[in-house]
Amino acid sequence: MVRYVFRLLPMAIISALPLAYAADSVSTLAATLNSGESGSSQSTALRLSSGSAVQSRDSTPLPTGEANKVANFFPREGSLEYTVMRGDGGFVLGKARHEWHFDGKSYSLKSSVETTGLAALLKSIKAVQQSRGELTAGGLKPQEFTQERGKGLEQARFDWVRGTVKNGEVEDALIAGTQDVLSVYYQLAWLSPIRGAVEIPIATGRKLDRYRFEVIGEETLSLEDGPQQVTHLRGKTTNDTMDLWFAPRLSPLPLRITLLNSKGELYDQRVKRIAR
Predict the structure, then answer these.
(1) CA gap 136, 31 in Å, rounded
(2) What are the E-state strand segments in 37-90?
(3) Taking Cα atoms as reference points, which of 106, 161, 96 lies closest to residue 129?
(4) Helical axes 26-35 vs 2-15, angle rounded to 10°
């Protein structure tokens, strides 16, 4: 049983992280497991202000007043908690918590994911991500992204003046609209694509990649509080497929995230609580 749960833990943690990071993190988290590294709000439905999402990719900082077009799209601050499982409604491996703050001109985001219950008793794992940046006419414009796992730290720094992004010690040309591993969720909610696909460059703290998210369609998602109308997006890497279900007027984050790996194993992350 111990070996079985240990085999599940690396992918379970990865399932709580965005697509860009998932593809290159299996070996690092497996090493963390083997080396033994470890690491209350009132619930309420968040109804976002009315208005269509601006689809522009312009990265110019917004003048006073116009900033409200972006800032008012998101709740000013809040948090969301997920339950992380293996399989569709299967074994609970951990939890993830996201927190956000938008002040009209800038933003700060934080995410933590950790094992819970039996999984935590066998091996305690925690990863923390943080992103900060500006709000622009095109949505989020990251300045810095960090991720801590055990004793390790990964970082992406964005220099929009020089037009470069540095993932660790690797420097690349900075492409307009580039996001980091954490901000990409909120950017997808801001863009709110309803058909076709959207391509977003993502800095992972290790490298810069371009990912394509395809709109699958409008669906009804069953949650504990009842059914919700959502937009289903799908992103792919060489080996994995990630599905995300968004309801931007309810939450700036997906209500559900699944990761299907090359072995056919499904990892499921479902919203547990939205609070502010």
Answers:
(1) 39
(2) 77-86
(3) 96
(4) 140
> Which two three-digit tokens encode residue 108?
């700060």
* Element counts in the chain: helices (H) and strands (E): 6, 15
Question: What sign has the CA pseudo-torsion 76, 191, 99, 180?
Answer: negative
Between CA 189 and CA 207 the distance in angstroms is 23
What are the residue ranges spanned by the domains of the chain? 2-37+48-193+201-210
Whether 262 contacts 239, CB under 8 Å: yes
CA-to-CA distance for 191 and 173, rounded, in angstroms? 23
Q: What is d(CA 178, CA 209) in angstroms, rounded to the nearest whole number?
A: 9
**Distance between CA atoms of residues 62 and 135, nearest Å:** 7
pTM for the model stands at 0.76
pLDDT tens track for 143-159: 999 999 877 899 999 99
Let me know: does 223 contact 214? Beta carbons within 8 Å. no
Reading the block at residue 138, the tokens are: 């095109």
